Each structure stands twice: as structure tokens, then as C-alpha cells.
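User: Modeling request: complex.
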Amino acid sequence: MAKVRDVLRVRPGVDPTAKPAKVFGHKPGDFPVGPESKSNAAKQLVSTGERLDKLQEALFAGGRRNVLLVLQGMDTSGKGGTIRHACGLVNPQGLQIHSFKKPTRAELRHDFLWRVRKALPAPGMIGVFDRSHYEDVLIARVNSIVPEETWRARYEAIEAFEQELVANGTAIIKCFLHITPEEQRKRLIARLERPEKHWKYNPADLDARAHWDAYQTAYAEALARTSTDLAPWYVIPSDHKWYRNWAVSELLLETLHEMNPSYPTPDFDVEAELARVKAAT
Amino acid sequence: MAKVRDVLRVRPGVDPTAKPAKVFGHKPGDFPVGPESKSNAAKQLVSTGERLDKLQEALFAGGRRNVLLVLQGMDTSGKGGTIRHACGLVNPQGLQIHSFKKPTRAELRHDFLWRVRKALPAPGMIGVFDRSHYEDVLIARVNSIVPEETWRARYEAIEAFEQELVANGTAIIKCFLHITPEEQRKRLIARLERPEKHWKYNPADLDARAHWDAYQTAYAEALARTSTDLAPWYVIPSDHKWYRNWAVSELLLETLHEMNPSYPTPDFDVEAELARVKAAT
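Assistant: Request completed. Predicted assembly structure:
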């Protein structure tokens, strides 16, 4: 099978001002790589989970490098579901999940990356960002929260920031959970029709939906401008939840596999300790 | 079946200076309640996971009350394994796990509860403490890190602290993972014989082991003195990992079930929003 990373990655050199569909490369309902049925994806998820588990333990034990998984997407695109089903495959002790909400007053007084730096994963951890610093070139742009020169300058700031993280040993995986407006409508209706899902519904979601095209344009430009070899963006077809979960779990697996984390060399004499344990009362 | 909470709980009114075995009530290899075989426990874990999942979501959605699970026990007693297998049953987004290490210099300059307060779970979350403020009446006592009058005064400070948490809506579950020295020896040897487990071994573990009886005495007194109706201690037979995982997951389930978390009432008009979504392009 082709590497999921190669297939889902935003093409290097794609024109950032091209039509969003061109930047994204595949459609929300596509299966450009991997399983084409829910049952096959479910089977793979089990073995992926076992492999992820071992790799994550070595990453944690090594305690040097770490992973940062960035999840972005329109409302209902499944950021929470991805955390539950894909990230839920690894030991929760090795996960550091952070949800970015509307910035507080205190956060707004600082540079936009200030709160992001505070939420970075510790060495050995897999950090997950549910929304991220990319909101500052998305909603900030669509809602004209800051002038164009401000959000436009952030592309470079983000690139420099991410390169700094990579230089410090972080592997960055950025996923755009790509859905159609039709699928969003279905999911919003489902949230309203099921009382136990009401809490997930926010009337403001419709305001963002009203700016659908503007968001797609903002996403396309942000992805094209900030998808680098060191911190690539992946477009995750997300109209099918099972495909989305499968794809993100595979990206985690491929990334960890390539990092090839190794257990640290013991800083004690193993044989001597074995003798000590056996001699101890 | 009897409630796991009733069976595993440290008996109210037990003499804190009684022999540790009397305070603990059951032995590390016992099955005082629930399944007596690994396969039965595994079956129950699946349905427990499904029920926990629903309850945890409602707790999270409600965003008011929370849970604090405290895990204490000798080295190799399985604090990490419990987090992985019992806490791993719930959505990782609803978990807030904190491992307490040897206090830093900065932490030592503050009251012993200072660092604990900073690690408390947010509303709606299930917080898990891998070690806790109880170290300050355990290792602090056994290693004479502070004078007796200091650690002895902490029992009251801890009780007041926990009552404050409970008054603020936290449900506290404190688990002592009870193992035999024979089982610890086996597990230490296993860590040394398997290279991928070396990282879990610490030569200092043997120093604590050399003080086994002093630790049992310190645990027994701490449990007896701080097990209150509002913040009870449970003694988890932990020589069998599957029993330990089952017992802790049941305690979580019973606690959440009793909290009976409910989804918040929508602060919007559901029918009106449904009409808006259906009318939106």
C-alpha cells in the first residue's frame, strides 16, 4: 500500500490561491488510499492500535522526542471523534490533549503563539491540538478580527514556530478534516434531534456555516502556505467517520514508525540489579 | 452483586494503629467481590467500558462536577497499568492524568498541597493522580524527610482539603493497589529480564522495598485516618492485574452512576434551531 502520508498530503508547490478543491486534492467522500469499507477499516484499526501502543511506549520511555497532532476542520468535522477513536488507541498516559477555545482577554494581550507554546506536549508525549494556532489565520481572517496584513504575516510566524519545534525533536502532523456542507447539515440536524447531543450544538455554528466558502478559501491558502516538508498538512476525507479515524490513526502510525523511537539504554548494571533483586528479602 | 465500594472500602472506625493486614481487610491475591477468573473479568470490562463511556460524556457535557481518582501503591503495584486498562476505557478527552514525582525545589518551598491544587481536574473531567499528596505521609514518614509532628499534622490538612473538594462537587476515589512482596519481586525480575521493560526499573525501588514493613504501617495508618465517608479509601487486591483493573473500573462506574450526571438543558430553542439548519443553504 502507498504511504498514507504521500497520498493525503497537500501537494508541495500547489498554488495557494488556486480553487480550494484543487488545493485539497481529494473530496470529503473519497477513499484515495486504504480501506474502502467500514468493516475493513475496523479490522485494520485493531492491528494499528497494537503497533501504535508499542511505538508510543518506546517514545514515552525515551522521553526525548514527541509528536504534535493538529486537528482542524469546520464544526462537526469530527475533531472530538478523531481524538476518541484514533488517539484513543494509545495509552492515555502518553497523550496530552488541548482544546483551543475563543482566546481569553489575557491571551489576546499576548502574541497569538503565546497560548500555543504553553500547551505544547512534554518530551515523550503525543500532543493533540483540537483547533490550534491556525484559527488565527482562519476565523481571524473570515471574521476580519485583525487586518489582512496581520493575519497574512502569521503564515511566516507559524512556519518559523513549527520549524523550531521540529528542530527540537517534535514530529508535526497537521490534519484538515474535510467535510461537505451537506454532511455538516446532516450532523447538525442529528445533534438537534438527539437530546443527548444537544450539548454539542452551538447556534453560532450556523454563522460559521454561512461563511462556508470564505472558510474553504482561508483553509486552502493556509494549508498551501504552511505545508512544508517538516510540517506537512494532510487533507483527511471526513464525510465517513470510519475513514477519517482510520486515516488519522495511520498517519500517527507511519510517523511514529519513521521516528523509530528506541528504549533508553539502562543507566544501571542489569545483571547486578537482577542479583540484588534476587538476594533481597 | 454487592457494591464493590462497600466490599473494598477500608472499614470506617478501624483502629489506625492496628496491624496493616487488619486495616487492609483483604489480601493482595483475594477476590472479595466480582469475577474470580480473568476471562469473566475481561467480559465485564467491555460492558463496563460502554457504560462508563456514556456516563463520562454526560459528566463532560455538564461541565460542573468532576471525579478525582487517586492511585497509590508500592512500586510495580500497577498504577500505570490501571491508568492504561481501566481509565483507558473512557474518552481520553475527558481524562486529566497527573504523575507526581519527587518534589522539585520550587515545590518544596510551598505547602505540600500547593502542587496538588495545581493538578486538580477541571470541571467535567476525570482526574487521575498517579501518586499524590499521600506521598507526604508515606515516603516523607518512612524516610524521615520531615519530623513526625509535621507529617502527622498532614492527616488533618488532607481531610480538610478533600472535604473542600467534595463540597465543590468533586467525587473522590482513593485506591491503594495492594500487592505482596513476592509479587513485587516477580515484577521487578520481569522488568530486568525484558529489555523493553528496563526503563521501568529504578535501582531505588529496592531501597523502598527494604522498608516494606514501614511502608505497610504508614499506608495502614494513612488509610485508616483519612478514609472518610466523603473521600473513602479502597484496598484493591492487585497481585492479579486483571482483578485490579476490573475493581478500579467498577469503582469508577459505581461512582459515576451514583453521581448520575445529566446533560445540560439547551440554552437555545431546539425547534427554532432545527428550522434554521434546515433553511440554511
